[in-house]
Amino acid sequence: WTRTNLQRNVAIFRALNNVFSQKPEMGALPMLYAATAPEAEGGDYFGPDGRLGWKGYPKKVESSEDSHNMEDAKKLWKISEKLTGIVLNI
What average pLDDT does this structure show over 83-87? Predict the structure, then answer.
């Protein structure tokens, strides 16, 4: 969970940010690591190494079961095509 201004207008989220979130610089590290680490391979997933995977430095982790749902992936693809007006035939 990364501390951003997206949560600034809801009091409970502002409070939770102070306890559970990390700075944006730390929140960006897993994506940067995945893109630049020599040992990162296609399909690898990286997240924070801290407690509950909420904070910390990047480490290789398992992605959620939902992230492998092909039906949802196809729905998201179709919605993205509709919203952007771009169709990419693969």
Answer: 96
Q: Residue 43: left if φ>0, alpha if ψ -120 to 50, beta else—which one?
A: left
Reduced to 3 states (helix: H, G, I; strand: E, B; else coil), residue 63 is coil
Distances (CA, A) of 8 to 17, 24, 42, 54, 58: 9, 14, 35, 19, 26
| Integer Cα distance of 74 and 78 in angstroms | 6
Question: Do the domain assignments include residue 74?
Answer: no
User: Residue 43 belongs to what domain range?
Assistant: 5-63
pTM across the whole model: 0.68
Domain count within the chain = 1
- pLDDT of residue 18 exceeding 80: no
Given a contact cutoff of 8 angstroms between Cβ atoms, the answer to whether 48 and 30 are in contact is yes
